[in-house]
Amino acid sequence: MELDVRTVAVIGENGSGKSTFARLLGGLVKRTSGSVSVLGVDPDRQAAELRRRVAVVFSNPDAQIIMPTVAEDVAFSLRSEKLARAERDDRVEAALARFGLSELATRSSHDLSGGQKQLLALCGAFVRRPELVIADEPTAYLDARNARRVADHLFEETGHRLVLVTHDLALAARCDAAVLFAAGRFTSVGDPASVIAEYEALLRC
C-alpha cells in the first residue's frame, strides 16, 4: 500500500488491526515481516529521525500528559529541540493560544476535563511542528462539542499530514483517502466514500 495524500482515515471494527497499524507507522511497535516507510524513513532502523518528524496522539490523553502544569507539559514536547529559551517560550505561548489553552497555562495538567486534556495532547504534538500526525481515536471519549473542536484542529492546522484512526465515519469522510482494516490486514484503499460504503456493507453481514 502506498498513499501520497494529506489526510488518511483508517477504519475497521475493534481488533481489526487499526491501532497496531498506527503504532507501526509511529515506530512504537516493530514489524515482523515486510517493509514500512514513513516519509521515506524506516521506523525500525531510523527511530530517532522518525520521532523528530512524526507525532502520535492517543485516545487517552493521560498516557501523554507528563508535566505538572499545562504550559510545562507543552514545553516538555520541545525538550529535544535546540531552542533558545525565548524561542521555546514563544512557541509554547503561540501553541497555547491556538488551542484555546492560554488561560489554563498555569493550571494543573491533571485537573483538566477530558476535552481539555485532549486539546493539551494535541497542543504538545503540534508545538513540535511535525510533518506527520498519527491520531489514534483522538475523539473516542469526548462529548460532541469537544470531539468537534479536536477534529477541527486536526484538519485545520497546516503544514502536516494526518493519519486518523477512527470509528467516526463522518470524521473519516473528511479525509482525502481511507483504508479499511479487517482481520489484521487492510482490505480496501481508496476514496473515503467508497471505502466507508464497503465497511458499512461489511457491518450489515
UniProtKB/TrEMBL annotation:
ABC transporter domain residues: 3-205
Gene Ontology cellular-component terms listed: ATP-binding cassette (ABC) transporter complex
Transmembrane in keyword set: no
GO molecular function: ATP binding; ATP hydrolysis activity; ATPase-coupled transmembrane transporter activity
Keyword S-adenosyl-L-methionine: no
Keywords in alphabetical order: ATP-binding, Nucleotide-binding, Transport
CDD domains membership: ABC_cobalt_CbiO_domain1 (cd03225)
PANTHER family assigned to the protein according to its UniProt record, in alphabetical order: ENERGY-COUPLING FACTOR TRANSPORTER ATP-BINDING PROTEIN ECFA1 (PTHR43553:SF24), HEAVY METAL TRANSPORTER (PTHR43553)
Family of the protein in this entry: Belongs to the ABC transporter superfamily.
Protein name: ABC transporter ATP-binding protein
Organism, scientific name: Labedella endophytica
